[in-house]
Amino acid sequence: MSYAVKEMFLTLQGEGRQAGRRAVFLRFAGCNLWTGREQDRADAVCRFCDTDFVGMDGTDGGRYPDAAALAARAAALWGDDRAMAYIVCTGGEPLLQLDRALIDALQNEGFAVAVETNGTIAAPAGLDWICVSPKAGSDVLQRSGNELKLVWPQPGSDFEAMEGWDFEHFLIQPMDDERGAANVQAAIDFAMQRPLWRLSLQTHKALGLR
Ligand SMILES: C[S@@+](CC[C@H](N)C(=O)[O-])C[C@H]1O[C@@H](n2cnc3c(N)ncnc32)[C@H](O)[C@@H]1O
Ligand SMILES: Nc1nc2[nH]cc(C(=O)O)c2c(=O)[nH]1
Ligand code: SF4
Ligand SMILES: [Mg+2]
C-alpha cells in the first residue's frame, strides 16, 4: 500500500505523558472528521483543529510507494543511534492509513511507534503507544490505550463515561483558540475537580518548536 504524507519532521513531543521526548512526527494527509478546508470547518464534526493536514506539500511530504520507503525516510530523520527511537504517527487522522505493514517496517528500523488518533477507527495491533483524543459528536470505537487526551472545553463530551474506559492516563488539554486563557483556566478547574485527570499543555507552541 502507498501512504499520503503531509509532512515529517524531528522535534520533541509537545503534549501528553510523553511530552519532552525526542520524536519523529509523521503527519498523514486527510481526516475523517474535517476536510481541512476553512469553508467546511463550521459544518465539520471536529471544528477546533489546529493543524494543516491537506495535501502532501510539507517537508518530507509526498506519496510514499510502500512501508519500507516511508520507514527508511523516518529512520534517516532520526539518525543512526536507534536506542530510544520514537515516532508519533499523527495527522489528520493516522488510522485512515497506518496499517500493520507500516508498524512492522517502522519497528524494524528500531522505532517505538506511537499514534495520536481521534478514536473513531480501531487501532491496528502492534502499536507501542496509543493516544486517543475524543471529539464530541463522534463515536469513539478505540476505548483502550495508553492515554486519553480530552481537549477542553468541549460541550457534549461525556467525560464521566470516558473515566470507565481502559486507559493508563487521563489528560485534559486546553483548547487552543481565540478564548486562550479562559480555556486554560477551564482545564485547570477540571483537573482540580477531578484528580484522575492531569493537565496537558501544548509545550511545543510555547517553546516555538514545531
Ligand atoms: C491534530 S490532531 C491529529 C490526530 C487525530 N486526528 C486526533 O484528533 O487525535 C493531534 C492532537 O491535537 C489536538 N488538537 C487539535 N486541535 C487542537 C486545539 N485547537 N487545541 C488543543 N489541542 C488540539 C487533538 O485533539 C489531538 O490530540
Ligand atoms: N511538537 C509537537 N508535538 C505534538 N504532539 C502532538 C502533535 C500533533 O499535531 O499531533 C504535535 C505537534 O504537531 N508537534
Ligand atoms: S480529528 Fe484530529 S486531525 Fe481531524 S480535524 Fe479533529 S483534531 Fe484535526
Ligand atoms: Mg499539533
TrEMBL record:
Any matching Pfam family: Radical_SAM
Catalytic reaction annotation: 6-carboxy-5,6,7,8-tetrahydropterin + H(+) = 7-carboxy-7-carbaguanine + NH4(+)
Binding site for substrate: 12-14, 27, 90
Cofactor annotation: S-adenosyl-L-methionine; Mg(2+); [4Fe-4S] cluster
Keywords from the named record: 4Fe-4S, Iron, Iron-sulfur, Lyase, Magnesium, Metal-binding, Queuosine biosynthesis, S-adenosyl-L-methionine
Residues the record lists as binding S-adenosyl-L-methionine: 48-50, 92, 133-135, 173-176
Gene Ontology molecular-function annotations: 4 iron, 4 sulfur cluster binding; carbon-nitrogen lyase activity; magnesium ion binding; S-adenosyl-L-methionine binding
Sites where the protein binds [4Fe-4S] cluster: 31, 46, 49
Record GO biological process: tRNA queuosine(34) biosynthetic process
Residues that coordinate or bind Mg(2+): 51
Family annotation (InterPro entries): 7-CO-7-deazaguanine_synth-like, Aldolase_TIM, QueE_Cx14CxxC, rSAM, rSAM_sf
Residues in Radical SAM core domain copies: 46-143
Enzyme class: lyase
Enzyme Commission number, as recorded: 4.3.99.3
Binding note for cofactor: Binds 1 S-adenosyl-L-methionine per subunit. Binds 1 [4Fe-4S] cluster. The cluster is coordinated with 3 cysteines and an exchangeable S-adenosyl-L-methionine.
Pathway as given in its UniProt record: Purine metabolism; 7-cyano-7-deazaguanine biosynthesis
UniProt-listed HAMAP family: QueE
Protein family (similarity comment): Belongs to the radical SAM superfamily. 7-carboxy-7-deazaguanine synthase family.
Known partners and oligomeric status: Homodimer.
Function, in words: Catalyzes the complex heterocyclic radical-mediated conversion of 6-carboxy-5,6,7,8-tetrahydropterin (CPH4) to 7-carboxy-7-deazaguanine (CDG), a step common to the biosynthetic pathways of all 7-deazapurine-containing compounds.
UniProt-recorded name of the protein: 7-carboxy-7-deazaguanine synthase
Taxonomic classification: Bacteria, Pseudomonadati, Pseudomonadota, Alphaproteobacteria, Sphingomonadales
Gene name of the encoded protein: queE
